[in-house]
Design a protein that fits this description.
- The protein has 19 helices and 15 strands.
- It has 463 residues and is an alpha/beta fold.
- It has 4 domains: 119 residues, Rossmann fold; 175 residues, Rossmann fold, CATH 3.40.50.300; 78 residues, Helicase, Ruva Protein, domain 3, CATH 1.10.8; 65 residues, Homeodomain-like (Arc Repressor Mutant, subunit A), CATH 1.10.10.
- The longest helix is centred in the N-terminal third of the chain and has 18 residues.
């Protein structure tokens, strides 16, 4: 499908020129004369990318960015400015801009930047929260002993400036814990900058972390500010840090030790004041022993560890979580909260939740949509829950599930489990990797070894 680009500029000649350039490049475009008009369009339509001027009467480009973020509109944004400076570029990117382009520019440069924003913008999954996060973005639900212990640990480590390592299985809420640490820290009024490490290639990762200078590599048409610079004075959250390749880990170690780094393509050192929060769903000691993670970086990260318990170890919280999610989904859908029968409630409490809180939220969302106005019975839930609550086995909507027999090798069992999980998630590798508790790169490498085509949505054997 052809990408749709929203262009916002108060100068008619400029917006028409950009529209012409991008239409000739094969995109669909909509041009708006101001931010208010752009907001009305994007809320009633759809845009894959927003190109907006910085200096506009009324609501300027930065206010436009802030509003897009507040309304959770996640299209990548490219800022256009005739008043380019390091300060304005950093300010724009602090409020969620993917990148900026300086007037005057030629058609080829705009085309390359738009293509990169469409290609990489979603993968980066950048989240910048100017002025920190509000309490609703870091709500930890549950009153079990395990949750009381977790809250106490957060209250101990949050006020310090030290690095925090949050560990736990996929879906336990490690990101919420990291947000809570930031919210209770002395940097709460400063930016929280997040980076989803599994979504990035090694080449993109270094540029996203440290930035790059113009001409540093092919396609680097302008200097780019990295996440460490964006988070200066605030907090940088690195989600699933084990996905950073070992060669780049040495540069990350240096920043943690010396608070200094260089942009890609530059020899000038830059100093930053950043607190780092990192998460992982892997045992880092095992990763160190296997040579996949630097031992010195492990000790530098593991200054203040926080372990997030799996949902099966805090079953007393399940009724409270179910009520929280059904109320939240009801507000989002503007409908009455879904109702569960006593048998359904008992099933939810007994179930092992291998996907943890994320799986529970998905189930509540699904029944809220598909059983609106009904009382949800136990038999309506059973087809959606992984068989027996044991990690790794699954009952898919199609009825397919992996079958293992005595004598099946571990390698064959792993292959069947991976194939079944990928089939369950309709070929979506990120979701499958999360369910399996491994990184996307690890999943892709295993599939390549099984003979599957790289990055196919619906996997099919090659050859």
């Amino acid at each position: 499908m052809t990408a749709h680009i929203l262009i916002v500029d108060d100068h008619a000649a400029a917006r028409e020129s950009m529209s012409d350039i991008l239409r000739h490049a094969g995109y669909r475009t909509t041009a708006c004369s101001g931010a208010a008009e752009g907001l009305r369009h994007i809320e009633h339509g759809h845009a894959d990318l927003v190109v907006t001027d910085l200096q506009m009467p009324g609501m300027d480009g930065l206010d436009f960015l802030k509003t897009l973020q507040t309304r959770r509109i996640d299209a990548p944004v490219v800022m256009v400015t005739a008043h380019a400076s390091v300060e304005s570029a950093v300010a724009a990117m602090r409020y969620g801009a993917f990148d900026y382009i300086e007037k005057p520019f030629d058609a080829e440069r705009l085309e390359r930047l738009v293509a990169r924003a469409l290609r990489d913008g979603a993968a980066v999954q950048q989240r910048v929260h100017p002025g920190g996060v509000d309490d609703s973005q870091a709500e930890l639900v549950g009153s079990s002993r395990a949750m009381r212990t977790l809250r106490h640990r957060i209250s101990q480590v949050a006020p310090t400036p030290e690095t925090v390592l949050v560990t736990g299985e996929s879906g336990t809420g490690k990101e919420l814990v990291a947000r809570r640490v930031h919210l209770e820290s002395r940097r709460a009024e400063q930016s929280l900058v997040s980076l989803n490490c599994p979504a990035l290639s090694p080449q993109l990762m270094e540029s996203e972390l440290f930035g790059h200078e113009r001409g540093a590599f092919t396609g680097a048409d302008s200097a780019r500010v990295g996440r460490f610079e964006l988070a200066d004075g605030g907090t940088l959250f690195l989600d699933e840090i084990t996905e950073i390749q070992i060669g780049l880990q040495a540069k990350l170690l240096r920043v943690l030790q010396e608070r200094m780094f260089e942009r890609v393509g530059s020899s000038a050192s830059r100093r930053v004041d950043v607190r780092v929060l990192a998460t992982t769903n892997r045992d880092l000691r095992t990763e160190v022993a296997g040579g996949r993670f630097r031992e010195d970086l492990y000790y530098r990260l593991n200054v203040l560890p926080i372990a997030v318990p799996p949902l099966r170890e805090r079953r007393d919280d399940i009724p409270e979580l179910v009520n929280h999610f059904r109320q939240r989904v009801a507000r989002r859908l503007d409908q009455e909260p879904v109702r569960f029968s006593p048998g359904a409630e008992r099933l939810l409490t007994r179930y092992g939740w291998p996907g943890n809180v994320r799986e529970l939220e998905n189930i509540v969302t699904r029944v809220s949509v598909l059983h609106h106005g009904e009382q949800v019975a136990e038999d309506a839930l059973e087809p959606w829950l992984m068989e027996g609550g044991s990690r790794g086995s699954t009952t898919c909507d199609t009825g397919d599930r992996p079958e293992f027999h005595v004598g099946t090798s571990l390698q064959e069992m792993e292959r069947r489990l991976i194939e079944s999980t990928l089939e369950h998630y309709d070929g979506h590798r990120v979701k499958a990797a999360q369910a399996l508790g491994i990184g996307v790169r690890t999943l892709s490498n295993k599939l390549r070894g099984y003979g599957y085509a790289p990055r196919a949505r619906h996997f099919a054997r090659t050859g």
